[in-house]
Amino acid sequence: MYFIIANPAAQSGQQDNRLLKQLEAALSERQQPYFTCFTARPDYVKKFIKSMDRGGEINLVALGGDGTINNVINAIEDFSRVNFAFLPIGSSNDLARGLGIKDIHKDKTQAENIKKIAAGKVVRRIDLGLLTDERTGLSRRFAVSCGLGFDAAVCHEVNESKFKNFFNAFNQGKLTYGAIALRELATIPKTQAMIFLDGQQAIHINRLIFAACMNTPYEGGGFKFAPDASAENGVLNLAAIGDLSLAQILPKFPAAYLGKYYHFKGVHHSPFTKIQIKLDHPLWMHTDGEVARKSSAVSVKCLPRVLKMLI
């Protein structure tokens, strides 16, 4: 049985359901039963999965971007029974980029991905990450990355921006990110951070800009913040930047986009299986670009090979 979660507003400027119809046609051709739910709300996704649960394996397919995928993986309660796939039709699609899957911008037909999904064969297992707010005990999984500081603040402001839908309507959603990112860089609060890698190595940063825990190499729509990261190696990668002025930060962004910034002063990077980050005051935190709250103390760990993939 296939359960399809479709977010019709996921892709900048993409308002039709052409790809959904093609996926449904491919499943019908193989006489595979399916049920489709149109939603982007995480509480609805969870209720939908529970209501459709009839025992046995579930082929769960998400149509949307990284945020839609994040909602879906956080609605799964028993990963052993779920085979997962997605059609990457969002504006960023960093999970697809990190897994070597062609997104809507590189393959508008998505024919190859649809064919693999309809075949229903598990082709790999990937890691996920788990972010826990140590103040509240609340946890959330992520497929691409989680982070504290600048990147999370940008995500929060973008989601609240009244210009987001306007630019998305013209397939220019990244303009919103760019404008807000420049503003956030100029107003970063001074925040001290202590980072503990696997309970041992400690990194002290007097003025944290951001600390990202990466499951794949990319976040933020193609920034290669963790060029060594892989979702199939059982570890996550830290990418943290701090103790730099705005004038020092801006010239480094082109190098960061290409993943060639590790040698710069103020950059900290390392693989890990578990990490703790403690701040002297709370900052926004995100999972796959989804922002819920601020925190001053978090832990992050790798969940190795937990998600079975059809693509």
From TrEMBL:
PROSITE patterns assigned: DAGK
Required co-factors: Mg(2+)
A GO term for molecular function: kinase activity
One annotated GO biological process: phospholipid biosynthetic process
Residues in coiled coil: none
Domain DAGKc span(s) in chain numbering: 1-135
Alphabetical UniProt keywords: ATP-binding, Kinase, Lipid biosynthesis, Lipid metabolism, Nucleotide-binding, Phospholipid biosynthesis, Phospholipid metabolism, Transferase
UniProt signal peptide: none
Lineage top rank: taxon: Bacteria
Keyword Lipid metabolism: yes
Family note: Belongs to the diacylglycerol/lipid kinase family.
Name of the molecule in the record: YegS/Rv2252/BmrU family lipid kinase
